[in-house]
């Protein structure tokens, strides 16, 4: 079983690592240096926030706005706390600090998909470590080849990141409550995107959790 979930995790990390190349290309197009892109990937290590920050800078925004947008998107990771907290119980402060840094969509999704605490912990660490390595490697590669790509959107690279999110989400939409939550969240986001600052639509989409939780509780009470 361990080998099975590690294989799935490795495939996910490789796919996400390829998106790191996309980020590197966009960082280069926004005139980020290699060092700046690597620092952003290493210390931020959450793709949505990184893409948001680079997009704001590339469109002429100032660093404060870029950081604000990135923080808005990164705020969702705090919601994963109750799920991954049991995985982070260790006497080592250094290990806890590393674990907290690795709490992102992919590690949480892999941990949540397992059937036991041991497998969840293993999936979390395996995914997190490999993803950190491949994401940063992809970032470096993307920046180095970025000069060869005059317009990233011509290659469809701008669609790669949202496509990965959809792929990550699909396996979890197995119940009516989850499907309703996803549809309402998507509707809120589509409406909010042209009306609100970058990053805010994602947080507003959290309102969809209300109807989803209500449907789940209603089903459990029947």
Description:
With 222 residues, this protein is mainly α. It has 2 domains: 2-153, no CATH class; 173-222. The chain is built from 12 helices and no strands. The chain has helices at residues 2-29, 34-43, 47-58, 63-74, 81-84, 93-101, 105-112, 117-146, 160-169, 176-192, 200-204, 209-221. It is globular and about 60 Å long. It starts with a helix and ends with a helix. The mean pLDDT is 80.
- End-to-end gap: 34 Å
The fraction of residues in strands falls at under 5%
Q: How many separate helices?
A: 12
Poorly predicted tracts of residues: none
Q: What is the mean predicted local confidence, pLDDT? A: 80
Radius of gyration, in Å, reads: 18 Å
| Secondary structure category | mainly alpha
**Secondary-structure element series:** HHHHHHHHHHHH
Count of distinct structural domains: 2
- Total strand count, please? 0
Sheet having the most strands: none
- What fraction, in percent, of the residue positions are helical? over 70%
- The rough form would be described as globular
Give a short synopsis of this structure:
The protein is mostly helical and 222 residues long. It has helices at residues 2-29, 34-43, 47-58, 63-74, 81-84, 93-101, 105-112, 117-146, 160-169, 176-192, 200-204, 209-221.
